[in-house]
Amino acid sequence: MAQAARRALSAGARCLAALCGALAVALASSALAAPPQNKNPSWAQLTPQQREILAPLAGEWNKLEPVRKKKWLGVVKRYPKMTPIGKKRVQTRMRKWAELTPAQREEARKKYQRIDKLPPAKREALRQSWKEYESLPPQQRK
Amino acid sequence: MNEPELGNKIRHLLNQGAPLDPRAAERLRAARELALARRKAEPASALAWAGGVIGRLGGLGGLSLRLLLPVALLGVALTTIYGWQQNQKVAEFADIDSQLLADDLPIDAYLDKGFDAWLRQHAAR
Predict the structure, then answer these.
(1) Across the interface, do A107 and B122 touch by the CB < 8 Å criterion?
(2) B74 contacts in chain A (CB < 8 Å)
(3) Domain count, chain A
(4) Is residue B53 a contact partner of residue A2, using CB atoms and an 8 Å limit?
(5) Residues A70 and A93 in one domain
């Protein structure tokens, strides 16, 4: 009985050890595959291309948390594929976006995702509505 | 032959006893008494139990290797999974932000409370 239990235990341990070994190999290989990267690059450590795209953030870049830097570098990666007008919009909105509170950004992202799921006709209607609303005198925009 | 059968056979043989001559029996008895007298005192039962447990896990060296290695690897794995999830989240935000910032609706359209209210009114009309 105890022998059987011990055998089961050691079989389990061997199985676990094998699993751990496989995991360790996987982790090591993924660590080797990914190029070593600076998790918190300063403005000076960015490439000239990154600095050019992120220029509106130059003043506050060094104060950003590492996670937000990483997010912006992700935006830089997607930037070359944008349309010229898209690039221009990103440039003009970047600073304002970075100055919002995390809660505001979260809210805007959620709304964007909701709108993005709408059928194209509805999205277009919403855009028209915004133009109409924007053209109203300030006291009517309430 | 299975285990109980073998056990029965051995018990039967032992019960029969070995035919020994009295001199040999006497020598065996003396040797047994000598051995008993020289036997060390038994270790305390708690210590014996602990020793048994540690022995079962492969001794103290075995304990550190067999138990601590998987625990350490598990810790590394959990940290990696957490890091990976964070990475996924950052990538997702980079995706959404890129699209949102390049979209033709300006940021204000998402944050203007007045626009939401105006839209509702507009729809009601």
Answers:
(1) no
(2) 20
(3) 3
(4) no
(5) yes
